[in-house]
Amino acid sequence: MTNAYKSPIQPGAKALNPRATALLPDLQTEFLVKLARLRFVCSQHGINIGKPLIHRSAATQKMLYCQGRTRPGSIVTNADAWQSPHQYDLAADCQLSWMPKPPNHGELDLHTTFGICVSTVKLTWGGNFRSIHDPCHVELPGWPKGAKTY
Fold first, then answer.
1. d(CA 27, CA 22)
2. What is the CATH number for 141?
3. What is the pTM of this model?
C-alpha cells in the first residue's frame, strides 16, 4: 500500500520494534481513513468535529503523564511517553460541538452520540475506557499490537 500521509514523527529503533516500524505507515493510513469516515458519520448525526489533535510529542506526553503525579493537577492520562498512540499518530482528541440544527437524539448527549458514531467506524472510544474517562478521544483498536514499545 502506498502511503500518501507523511508522518511528522521519526521513531527510532529504541521506540518501536522493527516489525512495528514497517507496519506504522499502513496503520497511520488506516487510522486517517477511519477518522475521515468518522467525520462523515458524525456530520450525519449533527456533530461537528473541529481540527483533531492527532500527534503529541513524547515531551508533551511525559508532561501530561506527570500531571497529578509529580506535578500539580489531576491525573489526565495513564500513558507515559511512547506508551500513547498519539506518539505514533494512531489516536486523536476531537473538539466536538453540535451543528446549528442537530437532529433530535432524544436523551442522548453529545459525547454519547459521538461514542455511537465512533463504534460504527470501528475505532476505540475513550468514553469506554475503564480508568480515565476520555469521551473526546478515539484510537485505532489494538494499536499496541502494531506499535508496541520496548
1. 10
2. 3.30.1380.10
3. 0.82
Q: What integer pLDDT is reported at residue 19 of this predicted model? A: 62
Pairwise pLDDT comparison (60 vs 9), residue with the higher score: 60
128/70 Cα distance (integer angstroms): 27
- Residue 10 grid cell: 521519526
Does residue 131 lie in a domain region? yes
Per the structure, the count of domains in the chain is: 1
pLDDT at 82 over 70: yes
Backbone angles phi, psi at 102, to 5 degrees: -70, 150
Give me the domain span that covers residue 114.
Answer: 18-146
Instruction: Tell which residue, 20, 37, 28, has the closest CA to residue 1.
Output: 28
**146: helix, strand or coil:** helix
Residue 11 lies in a domain: no
In angstroms, rounded to a whole number, what is the distance separating the alpha carbons of residues 17 and 42?
35
19-28 tens-digit pLDDT: 666 778 898 9
What is the model's pLDDT at position 144? 66
Q: Smallest Cα–Cα separation from 21: which of 139, 142, 149, 124?
A: 149
pLDDT above 70: residue 6: no
- Looking at residue 37, its amino acid is R
Is residue 12 situated within a structural domain? Answer: no
- Determine, yes or no, domain membership for 1: no
